[in-house]
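Batch job 17 of 40 flagged for manual review because the log was empty.
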Amino acid sequence: MVEAVIEVEVVYAAVDRQVLRTISVAEGSTVRAALLASAMDAEFPELDLSQCPLGIFGKVIADPDVRVIQDGDRIEIYRPLLADPKEVRRLRAARAAEAKARNQ
C-alpha cells in the first residue's frame, strides 16, 4: 500500500536571515516529526528542535509531539524575544515625553 504524502512549509527567521523550506512528510505526521524532517537545525546550529517553541500560521502549538499537521500547514519556529515589547514601548514613550518637555 502506498503511504499518503503531504507538503508543509517550515520557516525560521534568525536576526540576519530567514529560511522557508517546503518538505514532504507522511500524512499523520506530528509537528515535531515534520520539524525534524526539515533538518532546519543543520542550517541554524543554535536551534534545539526538541525544545524550541513552535506555531502553525501564527498560533502557538502547546504540544507539537501530539499535534498532527495537515497538508499546506506552515510550521513556524519561534526564537526568544530580545526585549519585552511592553517595556520597549514604555521606554520609547518616556523618551518622547522627555524630548517634548525639553522643547517647551
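Reviewer: the log was empty due to a logging misconfiguration, but the result itself is present. The beta strands are 5-13, 18-26, 54-56, 59-60, 74-77. Unflagging and moving on to job 18.
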